[in-house]
Design a protein that fits this description.
- Pathway: Cofactor biosynthesis; thiamine diphosphate biosynthesis.
- One of its GO terms (molecular function) is sequence-specific DNA binding.
- This is hydroxymethylpyrimidine kinase.
- The structure is a single chain.
- This protein is an alpha/beta fold.
- It contains 16 helices and nine strands.
- Helix 8 packs across helix 9 (250-267) and helix 10 (275-289) packs across helix 12 (307-318).
- The chain is elongated, with a radius of gyration of 29 Å.
- 37% of the residues are buried.
């Protein structure tokens, strides 16, 4: 009896191990501190769909809800070491690849893929950011075309990145199909081109498989105009990889992934930073202290943030640097005093903590293009005329 129970328990454990291996997805991408995209978001998506996520980090980003401030790329030998450690032990069925920022990293990953030959390789190229910034060098893109794309089961790519890779301007369904075929010619098995074409409230993405002379359209009504939402494309490619592991073919995996991402999009709430609140607090601080302090660091310290973060907030909301906002506010107040008070220019200068009238006049001329006395005279003449 005990031998029977031991044998039965052993079989159950072995079955669970096999199930885990069958549903294991390796994500190779960058880290995102906000968990909206990158490896953190991939792990969430894969786990939510019943897969088991393992990961390799290619780049560490310094970012928040305002955006990316810096990149720290992981050395190629460390990337290949991470892949080897995971694949030797866990043997994932599918590999999802996201951010790769150097040709050396691409070569390291492709060497590992050729060596270990995972069943499915899904690549989501992060070439153009949602802000339109190019995130890779031309050398890296060329290396991807030559070495990585031929190893891919599916390439999921957004319109801007497809335009960059193919050199085509994509403005019609025919353009999209031609671009997808161009990417197929690099050797991958299938291409999912997102933001394919639009009809009313529907977005029709294009799915093209090698050897087929036509494309399938994937209807995505709920995701229309949402592709630039942080992490949307990353979540989609991770979902496709997971559904591949579960035994779905290409079209079913893509369709189910869209359904999942649509549902999560409807119920998901983005992480909201304190940018708007902080900006209002900054403006209030300026109104209170502009006469005595025009140093950005003073305001950053008062708000308990770094000067760099404060600059990101003001740039995003007002399109101006903090110093510009401070100077604009001071100049506006100076204009009011010059046009509506009897104070001398010297009194105004000292009231705003300038070291001398000359210093204030230099600041005012730089801001307005005219000297304080000239500005006052012009305003008085205009008032007399009226």
């Amino acid at each position: 009896m005990s031998i029977f129970l031991f044998s039965f328990a052993g079989k159950q454990i072995f079955k669970r191990v096999e199930d885990n291996r069958r549903n294991t997805v390796l994500t190779i991408t960058g880290s995102d501190s906000t968990s909206g995209a990158g490896v953190q978001a991939d792990i969430q998506t894969i786990s939510a769909l019943g897969g088991y996520a393992v990961s390799v980090i290619t780049s560490i980003t310094v970012q928040n809800t305002i955006g990316i401030q810096d990149f720290y790329n992981i050395p190629p030998e460390v990337i290949s070491g991470q892949i080897e450690a995971i694949v030797n032990d866990v043997q994932p069925q599918a590999v999802k690849i996201g951010m790769i920022r150097s040709a050396a990293a691409v070569q390291s990953i492709t060497w590992s893929l050729r060596k270990y030959r995972p069943r499915y390789v899904i690549y989501d190229p992060v070439i153009i950011s949602s802000c339109g910034d190019v995130l890779m060098s031309d050398d890296t893109v060329d290396c991807i075309k030559e070495n990585l794309l031929p190893l891919c089961t599916l390439v999921t790519i957004k319109k801007k990145s497809a335009e960059y890779i193919t050199g085509r301007k994509l403005s019609s369904a025919s353009d999209m199909f031609d671009a997808a075929c161009d990417i197929l010619n690099y050797g991958c098995q299938a291409v999912l081109l997102q933001q394919g074409t639009s009809m009313a409230e529907y977005s029709m993405d294009i799915l093209v498989r090698r050897g087929e002379h036509s494309c399938k359209y994937v209807s995505t009504p709920d995701m229309y105009n949402s592709y630039e939402r942080h992490g949307m494309s990353s979540n989609l490619s991770s979902a496709i990889a997971t559904f591949y592991c579960k035994g779905n073919d290409l079209y079913d995996a893509v369709t189910k992934a869209y359904n999942y991402v649509n549902q999560s999009f409807l119920s998901h709430t983005d992480l909201i930073g304190r940018a708007s609140e902080l900006y209002n607090e900054f403006v209030n601080e300026v109104a209170e202290h502009f006469k005595s302090n025009r140093d950005v660091r003073f305001y950053a310290d008062s708000l308990n943030v770094s000067s760099r973060y404060l600059a990101q907030v003001t740039k995003r909301i007002a399109g101006k640097a903090p110093k510009t906002i401070i100077d604009d506010y001071l100049c506006h107040e100076a204009e009011l005093l010059l046009s509506s008070s009897d104070k001398t220019v010297q009194e105004i200068a000292y009231g705003f903590s300038f070291s001398s009238q000359a210093h204030f006049s230099k600041f005012f001329r730089k801001m307005t293009g005219t000297a304080p006395s000239e500005y006052r005279r012009t305003k008085q003449n205009k008032t007399s005329y009226e």
